[in-house]
Each structure stands twice: as structure tokens, then as C-alpha cells.
Design brief:
Helix content: 25-40%
Shape: globular
Number of domains: 1
Largest sheet: 7 strands, parallel
CATH superfamily: NAD(P)-binding Rossmann-like Domain
Bound molecules: NADP nicotinamide-adenine-dinucleotide phosphate
Number of strands: 7
CATH topology: Rossmann fold
CATH architecture: 3-Layer(aba) Sandwich
Length: about 230
């Protein structure tokens, strides 16, 4: 992989993933988050020779932003061969209290935005590209479920199924699509949603696993939803 795009670069796993990829041989890493500021952790990355970081602030739920992002890639002569749909939004609320607006927002961030981003970037992606969707153990059929995570888990389940379908649809173009269904990781998202819970995995640990998978997983997997969890059976 030479030019990798990572959504959700502002914090948690995405921020550590950008850093890891810069240190591990990616040529360019483009991190997307709504915030304009480049996270200090990424600035502090010990970049491999020639590795460059671009920070692209945008709201991934706005289609106009996605179109502008594609134009920016073209103008910058960046040919994306890796895309990590990592940005996400968690909502923990009793099913009957979730408003239509909240449900829409979670579906937009966790499902429709990756859908649109993949669709828009595909024409730019060469053979051998790898799309990695970050889903959740809660979105895996038959896994242990958590009360209050109905719309969040359903949105991740939708992204997992999209992964399987796209792998089939894009296989003639030699573009591989996989998903990592993560268990608990100690990030701001988890801390906000489950205060006091201590996850067994740190963001940088999950970022290393994810980064290695982005760089090499497409040689061995296509259309797979891999469960990455020590906590959830
Ligand atoms: N942590 C866990 O235990 C866990 C478990 C299973 C799966 N996951 C998944 O792992 C991924 C990363 O989560 P995390 O725990 O690292 O969360 P996090 O620390 O909250 O990071 C989420 C990132 O998503 C970005 N984001 C959210 N809405 C956005 C939008 N509309 N446009 C652009 N960027 C947006 C945020 O950036 P800005 O606010 O700067 O825009 C932030 O950088 C998510 O998909 C999550 O569902 C996490």
C-alpha cells in the first residue's frame, strides 16, 4: 500500500493508526476528521523515509465534502490504494428512546458515509487496492449483544454485510474489501459510552494490528469480517 486514507483520524484508534502507518512504510497517509488541527500524536510520528501526512478536515456525512475530497486527491496526484473507514459514532440508549434524528445520524456516520466514500473513491483506486471497514463485535450475527446499542450495532452489521457484497462485486477489478469487527478498545468513544469500564486493549495496540492488516491482509483475505476481540465471544 502506498497512499492510505484513514477516516476518524482525530482521536482513538484512527489517530494511532495514522501514526503507525507513517512509521511502517506507507508513502502518504491522509487522515480525515472534522477538526482542522493535526493531532499532536501524528505530528510526533517518526515517519519512515519519504512518508508524508496530509490532514483533510471534513464531515464525512456531507456528500459535497466527499466530492470535494475526491477532487483534492486528483489535484494532489494522490492515487489511493488503501481506505480505512474507521470514523464512527456510538449511541447507547434504550431502543424506545432513540429519536429518528439520532438513528439517522448514527446510520449516516457508520454506514452511509463509508458507502458514499467507497463509491466516490473507487474510480481512483488501482488494482490491488484494499478497503478496510471498521465494524464492531456488536454487529456480528450470533455475538453477545449489549442492551442500548441497537442502532449502533445494526449500523455496524450493515457495514459488515456491505463488505461481503462489495468484495464480490469488485473482485474482477482486483480490489479487496474486508472488515475488522472490533471488541472493546480504551478510546474516548468507549469512555464516553461506558464510563468506568476498562477495556483490555489500548488504541495503539489495536492500531498496530489494524495497520498491519491494512498493509498485508488483502493478500490473504477478501470479503471477510474478522472478529478482533478478547472480551466478546
Ligand atoms: N472503542 C471501542 O471499544 C470500539 C469497539 C468496536 C468498534 N469500534 C469502532 O472503531 C472505530 C474508531 O472508534 P474509536 O473508539 O477510536 O472512536 P473515537 O475516539 O471517538 O474516534 C472516532 C473518530 O471519528 C471521527 N468522526 C466522527 N464523526 C465524524 C464525521 N461526521 N465526520 C468525520 N469524522 C467523524 C471523529 O473525529 P472528529 O470528532 O474530529 O470529527 C473521531 O476522530 C469506530 O468506527 C468505532 O465504532 C470501537
Amino acid at each position: 500500500m502506498a497512499n492510505i486514507i484513514v477516516t476518524g483520524a482525530g482521536s482513538g484508534i484512527g489517530r494511532e493508526l495514522c501514526r503507525y502507518l507513517l512509521e511502517s512504510g506507507a508513502h502518504t497517509v491522509t487522515g480525515i476528521s472534522r477538526s482542522r488541527a493535526v493531532p499532536a500524536e501524528i505530528q510526533a510520528a517518526v515517519c519512515a523515509e519519504g512518508a508524508v501526512y496530509h490532514h483533510y478536515p471534513m464531515d464525512i456525512t456531507r456528500y459535497s465534502d466527499i466530492r470535494a475530497f475526491r477532487e483534492w486527491l486528483v489535484a494532489s496526484h494522490i492515487v489511493p490504494d488503501g481506505l480505512v473507514n474507521n470514523a464512527g459514532m456510538m449511541l447507547r440508549r434504550p431502543f424506545e428512546e432513540i429519536t429518528p434524528k439520532e438513528a439517522e445520524e448514527v446510520l449516516q456516520v457508520n454506514f452511509l458515509a463509508p458507502f458514499m466514500l467507497i463509491q466516490d473513491l473507487l474510480p481512483l483506486m488501482p488494482r490491488g487496492s484494499h478497503v478496510v471497514n471498521i465494524t464492531s463485535m456488536g454487529g456480528v450475527n450470533g455475538s453477545v449483544k449489549f442492551s442500548g446499542l441497537s442502532i449502533y450495532s445494526a449500523s455496524k452489521g450493515a457495514l459488515s454485510v456491505l463488505t461481503e457484497v462489495l468484495a464480490e462485486e469488485l473482485k474482477e477489478r482486483d480490489i479487496r474489501v474486508n472488515a475488522l469487527a472490533l471488541g472493546a478498545v480504551q478510546t474516548p468513544m468507549l469512555e464516553k459510552t461506558f464510563p468506568g469500564y476498562q477495556a483490555p486493549v489500548l488504541p495503539r495496540e489495536m492500531a498496530k494490528y489494524t495497520g498491519d492488516f491494512v498493509l498485508t491482509g488483502h493478500r490473504f483475505f477478501n470479503g471477510k469480517v474478522l472478529q478482533v476481540a478478547v472480551t466478546t465471544p
